[in-house]
Write a structure and sequence with these properties.
This protein is α+β, with helices and mostly antiparallel strands and 471 residues long. The protein is built from 13 helices and 26 strands. The strands form 7 sheets. Strands 1, 2, 7, 8, 9, 10, 18 and 19 form an 8-stranded mixed sheet that branches. Strand 22 and strand 23 form a beta hairpin. The longest helix is centred in the C-terminal third of the chain and has 28 residues. It is globular and about 75 Å long. The structure holds flavin-adenine dinucleotide. Flavin-adenine dinucleotide binds next to helix 1, strand 3, strand 8, strand 12 and helix 7.
Amino acid sequence: MHDLELDVCVVGGGPAGALAAFRLATLGHRVCLLERQVFPRPQVGESLSPGIWPLLDSAGLGELISSTSFRAPGHTLLCWAESEPQLLPSDSRAGALLVDRGKFDALLLEAARQAGVYVVQPAQARVTRTPKGWQIFADGVGRFNISAKALVDAAGRKSCLGGRRVAFSPRTIALWAHLDANHDCATRVEAIPEGWLWAAPIADDKVSLLFFCDPSHIRRSSGGDLERLLRERMTKTVLFSGFAQATFSRSVAARDATCTYATEPIGADYIMIGEANYSLDPLSSTGVEKALQSALTGAAVVNTLINHPERSNLCTQFYRDRQHEVVNTHIVWMNQYYREVQRHAGKPFWNLRCASSIPRPNVLLSKRPKQPRLTTLVRLAPEVSLTREACVIDDEIARRPGIRAPSLVRPLVFLNGIEVGLLLADLAANATWQDLLVSWSRYIPPASAQRVAKWLWEKRILCEASLCADL
Ligand SMILES: Cc1cc2nc3c(=O)[nH]c(=O)nc-3n(C[C@H](O)[C@H](O)[C@H](O)COP(=O)(O)OP(=O)(O)OC[C@H]3O[C@@H](n4cnc5c(N)ncnc54)[C@H](O)[C@@H]3O)c2cc1C
């Protein structure tokens, strides 16, 4: 039995766990990571959204991934709203990536190891809370008894901490296969009466294939033979019939693809990140991006909990708010996207997903306001409040001046790195547009002052003083 005493124990070596461990180690914490599987391991989720790049770059890992021979998605064939295929050019998803997740996840985990993370693999973790902190038993490559101040649950949608999860989509199952094929390179997506199909080449001789449907469809129609069901569903399609007879290089697996979120994603000494925090609809291809995002935010939260335990409530509120934002935005997006498939309206799969229309949370603004003149008197719009908001500063959660406004989906602290709340607090009574630009140019370059002021004006956060008085 090996005994280890550490600051942080991360359970799970997927993208979320590897990136959070990497970041915490570079911040000077003693970190270990436990992963139960040997890498490279097969993992679903091979189409990555362009939003991964700023996240990887901010951690200094962008070049590691861009220099590996992963593929750009190329053009996409789509039968979604229309039954006729549409060709989306490759630049419609510029920056997106198709990856072999076995390879992608192994690269990130190796980067964590290189950064000083003590990686124990394969090792199945069992966690218990003690009055002194966390006790983690790991069994696999050896037997480990680990005590840690903070626990990061990055164990994927099953989570190592358990706890209540709320589903925010109908239950969905994905059948997943790899085709041994040199098929034409287009990514393809097609809505069919029973669900939808996706395929993309993730290597020269490997195509990844997914079929999403209701669990009841599998129970009723597969007779226990998932491969037969998958082949049958492809035969009558426009884009997938050519794959119906292809050789499968691995047996067809079923994966839960329901959207869920954890109701207690954070406490004073633990955090859930990646899919342990929330799982999104694979239709969006943003699962890995959001896993990386929650890993970086989660690392800043854990860093704060260790360095400033007195900020525990601030961290909890901040992390919960970020979770709610992602989930709420995703619900709106899913609702709109599934409703585009009117041609299958009435079929149970589509009925369940198109039924309700959820209004957008932010106010849709009418026409842009007329540009102010230099002599226009400006002020803060009456419905805008100057607040103090939690945000990430230098890898810690802290409060800074911010604003809340009906035109903003979330409170705003920074706009392109500029602290907007500080500028607005400096807005003098009876200031003209010119006064405002001159005053802000004392703190930031004049061109930035112009840009920030224009953005705030268009968002109706700033308005004409006389007009406001009339409201
Ligand atoms: C059908 C389907 C299709 C998807 N398609 C896409 C897509 O196209 N694009 C996209 O971006 N996302 C997609 N996703 C989502 C994507 O797969 C996830 O967002 C991503 O894998 C989350 O990363 P993670 O690190 O949180 O979890 P994971 O990648 O699941 O990693 C968790 C790790 O924890 C380990 N683990 C679990 N329990 C323990 C334990 N007790 N001890 C030790 N180790 C443990 C597991 O072995 C695993 O390696 C899809 C998901 C599904 C279900």
